[in-house]
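Sample entry (486 residues):
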Amino acid sequence: MDTLTEAEMWATARNMPKKGGKHAEMGKEMQAQCKRAKVEEARSPSVMNFENPDSLFGSFISPIKQEMFFREYWEQKPLLVQRNDPLLAAYYQSLFQLSDLKELCSQGLYYGQDINICRCVNGKKKVLNKEGKVNYMQLKKDFDQKKATIQFHQPQRFKEELWKIQEKLECYFGSLVGSNVYITPQGSQGLPPHYDDVEVFILQLEGEKHWRLYKPTVHLAREYNVESEDRIGNPTHEFILKPGDLLYFPRGTIHQADTPLGISYSTHVTISTYQNNSWGDFLLDAIPGLVFDSAKEDVVLRTSIPRQLLMQVDTADSTKKLSSLLRRLADRLENTRELRSSDMKKDFIMNRLPPCLGCDSDPLTPGGKLPKIDSKIRLQFRDHAIITVEPDQETSDEIRRDMVYVYHSLKNRRETHMMGTEDDTTSEEGTSQQTHGLRFPLSYLDALKQIWSSSTVNVKELNLISDEEKENLALSLWTECLIEVI
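Predicted structure, serialized as tokens:
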């Protein structure tokens, strides 16, 4: 069985180490190219600030300011944050450590699905997976004797603190956030030089890791790819990550890493995001709906294509016509209030993590007062719900009217986060995985926007015609735990 790539599992950047040996001197030029933020113990950041998504990300990249990060580094170049903070190092170690594997294996892990073991040999990845369930003693034997790297897929399924971090990051980015843990013994490397199709954040948890980064051959790459040593040239950055350090690099950055000799092993977690989340992806999602809606009102879009167009080899004349139609669509787009992007939105909301309320907390159920016409209400879990306008899914008529859908992730299952496989459509309980939410007539759209855009709103002031509609809307949202009465 072959090891899944980061692009396939969607985890993130892997260790790209070179087999042990001497590490090149890190010259001043290389150090200057990669920002090194030295954090003095006196100013050491506290553990993560979970007050809101913005504060979480701020503490995640501290002491770098968010404005500077997005202006100078995001999608542009690597950022290395080296911290000298024992408290932060201890917190990082608590996220995942080698000693966790024994207990985790007892819960029933499987090769390929939960764990891969591999090693980079002569510039190629050698997969050492066994079949079926992971036996801890065999796993430890391969790690110690074969110098294999252990890749643990999506540890947020088991580790609550990673769940908390990734759930807040998904709120912050508005994009799925996956993770992988890599544990590599000394003098070994798990994966050959490669680049990924995700934005990568590396947190060094245990031991030390020697990293080399190279100039991208494909900027902001859309797919994973292995690169041979003879094509990538010399590293643009080379450094050692220690516990508490953080490394960021954009998709397309070629990288490899190894555990130095003299360091018993290295553990790091790779947190990744923004796979297939570009303007190009958004256009692919939004343009079909724009064309469909425009054609209803613009007769030019409803005129026939030329005879035998689909049979022609040379379509130069038709491309001129298409350019004209695209400009027409662009003009219409500037005056469009609602731009449909239901597929990307639904994919995000259906596959993201649920709110982290604690492992021992009960499933969300409606609580507090029932909303009435005189109630004041407030939206809950704003970051976990979306509003879309799309054709009615519950009718099969040729002409389907538009409806408003409110989708949310409050009932998503943490256990299946980022683990999408062909047989994932049904859970262990035999229930089909589905999008959770509500369906309303299009006339409810303004009232929903009212609730979403206000800190509080009186039910009787909702932009609907009758009191009955206003109460029904509030009660429907309350039943899904999306509002509370205050």
